[in-house]
């Protein structure tokens, strides 16, 4: 098995750094994503009310931009968890990670 590269600033190997990555099954990550989604849900309800109340279109667009940014942050978090899960799985099974990276890039392209 190839030797893991060392991170000079912390002295950790790349395998140790990957082991510390937060994955999708992590309860704190799940709680964070659910909390963010709840906030987004509230923002969407707020925009819905703004439209019903015939509020200024510029104000609505500003809120929609904030919602879009929040959704992108959640998506990036979920993508990072997915990648960490795949890399951990590949490393634990001594698999080549290239197939997982290709799959990740395919998903990333759909997201972006």
From TrEMBL:
Gene Ontology BP term (one): negative regulation of DNA-templated transcription
CDD domains, per the entry: CsoR-like_DUF156
Domain of life from the UniProt record: Bacteria
InterPro entries documented for this protein: Metal_Tscrpt_repr (IPR003735), Metal_Tscrpt_repr_sf (IPR038390)
Protein name: DNA-binding transcriptional regulator, FrmR family
Keywords: DNA-binding
Molecular function terms, GO-annotated: DNA binding; metal ion binding
